[in-house]
Specification:
Helix content: 25-40%
Shape: globular
Mean pLDDT: 92
Order of helices and strands: EEEHHHHEEH
Low-confidence stretches: none
Length: 135
C-alpha cells in the first residue's frame, strides 16, 4: 500500500480555561485520501480531577462522546455529522476557548493511516504504567 498523508489533533480537557492547564484525553485522525475520520478518547478522570476536583465528569464524557459521534457521521450525528469527513475534521479542530480544546493540527505519513490512532494514543494520551489511561 502506498504511503498516505494523515492529519491529527490531540483532544485536550482544560478544566479551568483561565489557568491554561490541560490533560490530553484523545486524538482525532483524518486521512483525506482514504476518507478516514476517527477519534480515540480515553478520559483519565483522576488526572482531570487533579486540575479541577469539581468538574462534572458526566457532562464532560457526553461532550467527548459527541466528538466520536461527529467523526463517525451518519444518523444521530447532527448537522455537522452530515458534512464530508474533511469538513467535519476542520470543524472539530477549530480553535475554541472552552474546556474541550484541540491541539494544533499535525501531519504524518503512514502506509496504514487507520492504524495510527492507537500509536498516537500511546504517545500523546496514555500514561505509562496505567494501561489504557483509565483509572
Amino acid at each position: 500500500m502506498p504511503t498516505a498523508i494523515y492529519d491529527y489533533a490531540v483532544i485536550r480537557v482544560v478544566p479551568r480555561v483561565e489557568r491554561e492547564e490541560f490533560v490530553n484525553v484523545g486524538v482525532v485522525v483524518s486521512c483525506q485520501t482514504t476518507g478516514l475520520l476517527e477519534a480515540g478518547i480515553e478520559l483519565d478522570a483522576a488526572r482531570v480531577r487533579a486540575l479541577d476536583p469539581r468538574i462534572d465528569l458526566d457532562t464532560l464524557r457526553a461532550h467527548l462522546e459527541a466528538i466520536a459521534i461527529i467523526c463517525r457521521g451518519g444518523p444521530g450525528s447532527g448537522p455537522i455529522g452530515a458534512l464530508p469527513p474533511r469538513a467535519r475534521f476542520h470543524w472539530l479542530t477549530a480553535r475554541r476557548s472552552s474546556i474541550i480544546q484541540m491541539s494544533p493540527v499535525h501531519t504524518g505519513r503512514s502506509a496504514d493511516p487507520a492504524a495510527v490512532l492507537d500509536g498516537l494514543l500511546d504517545r500523546m494520551v496514555r500514561v505509562a504504567g496505567n494501561g489504557t489511561g483509565n483509572p
